[in-house]
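Blinded run. Sample ID left blank on purpose so nobody reads anything into the name before looking at the predicted structure. Input follows.
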Amino acid sequence: MIKRQLLTFLLRWALSIVAMYMCINWFAHFKEGYEYLQQSWWFYVGAGLAFALVNSLVRPIATILALPFLFVTLGIFTIILNAAMVGLTIWIIPHVTIGFWGAVGGCLVISIFNYLVNLILPDVK
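Blinded prediction complete.
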């Protein structure tokens, strides 16, 4: 049972790394002189870990603070909240920048990718 949960966690983390790879390569920009980071898989492993930490530590607090906006917009503000989490993750990662619309595009790519992953992978309890 625990072995299956660990395997599912590692698979989801690996798929999140792939999603961050797509997000960074499609929407973010490397600072001049640091383009070589684009070729390093360790860079994307760190980006996936940073994204996981931001989603587990910052996102719950941001969601609680954004509840009035979520109620008024009937949940549409979730896109802005997700874009803020992508933007914060990119801000944490050194030598990479992203604009607001890039963060929105990145959060949409990550959301679609995670939706497809959740369709494929069973929920482990």
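Unblinding after everyone has recorded impressions. The longest strand covers residues 29-30.
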